[in-house]
Specification:
By secondary structure, this protein is mainly alpha-helical. It has 6 helices and 5 strands, in the order H-E-E-E-E-E-H-H-H-H-H. The protein binds zinc ion. The site of zinc ion has 8 residues, from loops.
């Protein structure tokens, strides 16, 4: 693992969630559905799945205290990290790499650095780039994309991406352009 990314929020899911909560909600949880600031923390218990395995208690779940709303939410709702099975630690690490690097970070690099599949790396890179373009909100606390990154995106694919794509033939729906 590269130096500088071995910080707690990249190693532990709870730390990752708490880090995201602290940058997104510096003054406590804010309901993404109605914008209200009052929320209760929901405590869940570990569940036993049909397979016999135990699913751990869900952490970081809140219920909006507004009577008219009452929606449940977590810190990832309304962000690029919403509704994915990818650990938050990987998302944060990817966001850090993509936002802090002066050079283009290819999906292939993400795949190797994060230890995820190439397909997952493409998905992560795509979501975070969309977020950086303003399509999806990114939690504040992440620097915006360096201009070099945007220039390289516009100019197309660098050799690293082409190599990565050769090793992973594009599917029918097109290649990963990350
Ligand atoms: Zn609400």
């Amino acid at each position: 693992m590269a130096a500088g990314i071995s910080v707690p929020q990249f190693a532990n899911e709870d730390e990752a969630r708490q880090f995201l909560e602290s940058v997104r909600w510096p003054n406590g949880p804010v309901c993404p559905h109605c914008g209200s600031t009052g929320a209760w923390q929901i405590k869940t218990k570990p569940r036993t799945l049909k397979s016999g395995k135990t699913s751990p208690a869900r952490q970081g779940l809140y219920k909006c205290a507004q009577y008219q709303c009452g929606e449940q939410f977590s810190v990832t709702v309304g962000t690029a990290f919403e509704r994915s099975k990818i650990p938050l630690t990987k998302w944060l690490m990817a966001a850090h790499l993509l936002c802090s690097s002066n050079k283009h970070v290819s999906a292939h690099q993400l795949h190797r650095t994060l230890g995820v599949t190439y397909k997952t790396a493409c998905f992560i890179a795509h979501r975070i780039r969309e977020a950086m373009k303003g399509g999806l909100p990114m939690p504040s606390g992440f620097p915006s994309a360096p201009s070099a990154e945007r220039r390289q995106r516009r100019s197309g694919q660098d050799a690293g991406i082409r190599r990565a794509q050769n090793g992973n033939p594009p599917g029918r729906r097109g290649a990963c352009r990350a």
